Amino acid sequence: LAELNLIKEESGESAILLLDDVMSELDSTRQKFLVKTLSDTQLFITTTEITPCLEEELKNGNIYNIEKGKIKL
Predict the structure, then answer these.
(1) pLDDT attached to residue 18
(2) What predicted TM-score, i.e. pTM, was given to this entire model?
């Protein structure tokens, strides 16, 4: 999170953040906190499942499912 702020300060532009399977390491409270904290940041989140606690937080995003190497919208 500190790096996002540093990039914004140094370049004047917002970074795009990739979170690769970080949600599996966090409990539901911390998952919600992370997504809310990053609500003004463009995110790409990879995960094996969307937990019920995140459904509301991610409702304004695009969700892409990949099955057998093919993207399903």
Answers:
(1) 93
(2) 0.72
